[in-house]
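Help needed: design a sequence for this.
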């Protein structure tokens, strides 16, 4: 049978940065091909070439036996290629139905509604067709991306970190959907930083390193250790251990705090009570839609409460889950993004005037101190890899000398090394006396860094007992308050 997708000798540069170097990549009919690599290794760029979003400087793209020097998204969709992007592409002001209709090229009307219903039923995804995309949670937005890619006759599905914002049950359900699609003959490319996902769901695995193929072969003939060696080229990073905690003064205290559901979906937050002390790194565990978004944003001062009391002591820094819609503006320079993040007061502000030279120097110092790979403070934020974007957000959050740091899924979409560095930065902040509160959908990662764990279920906040096991905390997340 003809391969649904074959890339041959693909090369691409962005200025002086080599993104891809003569890459060969093929997807066999009805296989799941996992694509691994560090942030900036070229994974997303390669898939954008395949889908027609990026034009290569050399090489060919072959879709269902038809060879092209480059393709457009229209050509790719015509050959049955669908793509789930790493960053959300839905138009926030449009509804779920309108976004899927636009992506699929359907004629608006009742027929589009019926086709969306059928697509959701087949995919096992439930979303309100009339809800605005901008009102969806991160997990719901990812499900919308999948619907957009599946709308129409899809023969090969390109998935760029599809499970990075999903709870473990939702991620498993999504990947099971990909596996069922494979069994029906739909091939898939699965970009992931989770080695377990690649080994469990992949039939083949390719590793990119610095824009070139470092390894390709059957998934059942390679080990996790070998994959890490191919990804990093050296010894894997040391595991992060929870910081020693000597709690200091109370930095944040809430009593009976309630917050209405964001976007009108989920449970919101119901009468939560907690204290956060200097030097603590407290983890928040929750399944999607159980109140963690409302809790974190209210504590950070971004949304109002609907009841209860909230007291903070000192500056609060917030690191959002979605760095491309809440954290950075891709079309702005790094300096302008840093200035927007800092707001007021800032050392480069004098009344209504901005000293851009001073803001640029500050941004340059962040790049140097935090090993952020960028062409300079004038580079566009959209030109950075996901890992470097996240480093910039964390660097500026810490540069404010916060008393409280609130981070929402801060390692989302990052490779092993970048995620480890982020976790180390959070631990260092706690060790320096910052009160740190972190939400992460990966319970194992949360247990590796947190000094104690808070669990949200049904909008209710519970604290896991000291030494609670992963299973006990998991049962708390499912609404069994006596589990831990």
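Sure. Designed sequence:
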């Amino acid at each position: 049978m003809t391969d649904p997708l074959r890339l041959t000798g693909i090369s691409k540069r962005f200025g002086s940065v080599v993104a891809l170097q003569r890459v060969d990549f093929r997807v066999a009919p009805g296989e799941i091909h996992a694509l691994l690599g560090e942030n900036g290794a070229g994974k997303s760029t390669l898939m954008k070439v395949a889908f027609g979003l990026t034009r290569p400087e050399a090489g060919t793209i072959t879709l269902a036996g038809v060879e092209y020097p480059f393709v457009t998204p229209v050509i790719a969709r015509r050959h049955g290629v669908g793509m789930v992007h790493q960053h959300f592409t839905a138009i926030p002001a449009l509804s779920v139905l309108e976004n899927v209709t636009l992506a699929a090229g359907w004629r608006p009307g009742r027929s589009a509604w019926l086709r969306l219903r059928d697509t959701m039923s087949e995919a096992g995804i439930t979303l309100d067709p009339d809800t605005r995309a901008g009102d969806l949670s991160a997990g719901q937005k990812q499900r919308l991306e999948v619907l957009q890619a599946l709308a129409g006759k899809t023969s090969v599905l390109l998935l760029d970190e599809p499970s990075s914002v999903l709870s473990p049950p939702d991620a498993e359900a999504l990947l099971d959907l990909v596996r069922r699609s494979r069994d029906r003959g739909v091939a898939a490319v699965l970009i992931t930083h989770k080695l377990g996902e690649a080994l469990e769901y992949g039939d083949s695995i390719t590793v990119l390193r610095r824009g070139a193929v470092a390894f390709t072969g059957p998934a059942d003939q390679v080990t996790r250790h070998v994959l890490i060696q191919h990804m990093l080229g050296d010894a894997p990073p040391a595991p992060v251990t929870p910081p020693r905690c000597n709690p200091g003064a109370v930095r944040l205290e809430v009593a009976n705090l309630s917050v209405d559901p964001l976007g009108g979906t989920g449970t919101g937050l119901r009468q939560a009570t907690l204290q956060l002390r200097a030097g603590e790194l407290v983890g928040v565990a929750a399944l999607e839609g159980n109140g963690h978004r409302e809790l974190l944003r209210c504590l950070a001062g971004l949304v109002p409460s609907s009841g209860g009391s909230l007291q903070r002591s000192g500056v609060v820094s917030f690191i959002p889950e979605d760095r491309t819609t809440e954290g950075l503006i891709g079309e702005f320079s790094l300096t302008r993004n840093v200035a927007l993040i800092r707001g007021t007061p800032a050392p480069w502000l004098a009344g209504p005037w901005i000293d851009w030279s001073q803001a640029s120097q500050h941004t340059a110092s962040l790049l140097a101190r935090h090993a952020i790979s960028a062409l300079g403070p004038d580079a566009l934020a959209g030109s950075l890899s996901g890992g470097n974007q996240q480093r910039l957000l964390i660097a500026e959050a810490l540069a404010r000398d916060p008393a409280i740091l609130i981070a929402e899924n801060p390692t989302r979409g990052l490779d092993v090394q970048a995620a480890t560095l982020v976790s180390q930065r959070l631990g260092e902040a706690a060790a320096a006396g910052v009160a740190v509160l972190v939400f992460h959908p990966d319970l194992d990662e949360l247990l590796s860094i947190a000094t104690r764990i808070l669990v949200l279920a049904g909008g209710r906040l519970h604290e896991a007992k000291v030494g609670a096991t992963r299973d006990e905390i998991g049962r708390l997340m499912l609404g069994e308050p006596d589990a831990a």
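The chain has two domains: 5-232, 250-477.
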